[in-house]
Amino acid sequence: MNFLISFFILCLPALLYSQISENELLNRSKKLVKQLTVEQKIAQTCQVTLDALLKADEKGTVLLPIQIDEKKLNLLIEKQAIGSVLNVSSHTLDRETWNKILTQIHAPFRQGKTKTPVIYGVDAIHGANYIVGGTLFPQEIGLAATWNPSLAHKMGEITAYETRASGVPWNFSPVLDLGRQPLWSRFFETLGEDPKLASEMGTELVKGYQGTNPAESTRVAACMKHFVGYSLPRSGRDRTPSWIPERQMKELYLPSFKAAVDAGALTVMINSGDVNGIPGHANKKLITKTLKENWGFKGFAVSDWEDIRMLHSVHKVASNQKEAIIMAINAGLDMSMVPYNGPHEEYLKLFKEAVDEKKISMKRLDDAATRIIYVKLKLGLYEKQFEPWQSFTKFASAEFKNAAKNAAAESITLLKNENNTLPLTKNEKILLVGEAANNLIFQNGAWTHTWQGVDTSFNTKGALNFHQAMKNKLGSNLTFVQGYDLSMREGWETCELLNKDQVLSASKSADKIIVCLGEMPGTEKPGDIQSLNLCEEQQALVKMLQETGKPVILVFMFGKPHIVRELEPKSAAILHAYLPGDYGSEALTEILLGEVNPSGKLPFTYPRYDGVIEYYDYVNSETKTNKTDGLPIHPQWAFGHGLSYTNFSYSDLTVKSIPSDKGNEFEATVTVKNVGQKTGKEVVQWYLTDDFASVAPANKRLKGFEKISLEPGEAIKVIFKFNNKELRFYGKNDNWVVEPGTFKIACGNQISSFEIK
Ligand code: BGC
Question: In the chain, what are the domains?
């Protein structure tokens, strides 16, 4: 009964609404825009942060607990009819407070005082991370390590449901930037280094967020971030220049966005940095030509934080603020995250002047406003802005927590397991060392309850850190010593060794020692780092424990790869947990104890040296750089690597051409068998290589993958179909080509050749 009532409340209006065709929606958007004055159209393109509407003291500091300032609300939302509001104030809010804020923000529209509803957006990037009690999933880098798109879909669905419970219908997620610069503070927000993996996982996040009808009150609009090339800053520092040749742009950085557009993503956020000298927000070729004209993106493009202003103040491509607005809007930007009260007045005024002076055409303004209103219609915001939080009965339910734990369990990657050190047995005496095991902030990372995620006071009640999860299972067989202390000093992470003697004396009675290595949470500029090297103190701790001769197991709670070259050889086992979220430690414990068989695979090439960043799709000339070991490249661990407590064998790889009038079509098959003693999941990875090509070909490229589950002794024949799309590359004459010649297909240890005539 309860379910039926919830269904009718949450889904029925949307079901009726979904009958409206795309054309009708577009026409309706256009009609609605026609009813707006020029000022109102401009206001639609303006986005302010929640603080702009809150009560503050004379110095502008927001008063706590936060409260909407009626005067500011009247001015910004009612009189100026601002189109969008974003963000949480300083920290996470409960659902009641969210609903209250949203009710106040929507009041002018509901009372007929404005013509257009506000669209509210938030960063719910690993679950509803700005709602008290929201279900926290692994960060995207961990999600990618599951190589299981259905888990991304689930995370999307649950995040959408819980985000809508707060009243917010728009999520600034997923990040579709490729993780190819591990120094970048936002590496953990990416889906790893590979375009295929990022496309498949990103697309499922989008589908999970939006469903088939984003107007359902359990769905949100997705926002593809950050279009495009943001993730490859040469310096490693956030919002600094990237240099990306056209070919790499097309082959590597654009595909995940293209796939998300094809999946119907409704909004996009623009790259704050510059690519090849052109700031993202001034890049007409990318925003208008590629995204809107070539790909047919129908939604709207929002700027990132203050980024129109930055065209003048930071990038120095516009000599004043008005020129910056003209440049960005004419490049195809539709909405400006201004986002402060005050500067927004200047934005509205200068935008109007630019229209009056015909520097921004009415056509462009209408297009921007139409796109924004189209998304608002798609979300059903004209009909109903949100449902009260009480109707979301599944919020933070056991079912949702289980899904988050499941995602973490499938992400955790067994990198090394010498002499079957793992799984542990319950009667073994374990010493657990490391601060990262002792607080939820280390397993969640940034964008958790607060922007940087370092404030421990908002930790989810009831969620277990690694120490607690282990204690629950092992009781008195577990000893914990903190070992080191991480903190931020003057903007940089510092680490201190603690209780050295206690650690050593505790190690004496331990059968095995687990060292949980970690990093301070951080993102964007505050998260910038100088080096990938793991801090000396954590290294010293591990080396000291390795000297004891007891088996040392390393657990990484890292959002980025830290260099562990000197620690790896003497470690008996290594598990990468990434930033697994609130339920990740329970999953980790179950893996350590063998209750769950690990099945995560690295979504990036794990570097061995701080100064040598390699990718799995290197070209042959790169293999000439290793003078000592003769290996093609020499990372710590390869992309796609991940062990299991069972073993899989691969056999009988075949590839055949299938007759088709659409060009080259192939079908490959391989048999995968579980030859060990435990049920396990394996990611079957398909790689293609063009042996010789007019542009130096990649060593291999991932073109397909599938996660399968096998009982001991069970074998499955896995099929992979591919065509020109997987065989092509961006050629010398700036077009996609498939060149005749020989190719290789590889899967597991199997390899076969085929020819294109
Ligand atoms: C970040 C975006 C985020 C936005 C809103 C920016 O600083 O770069 O990823 O969505 O803030 O919080």
Answer: 2-383 (3.20.20.300), 412-623 (3.40.50.1700), 648-756 (2.60.40.10)
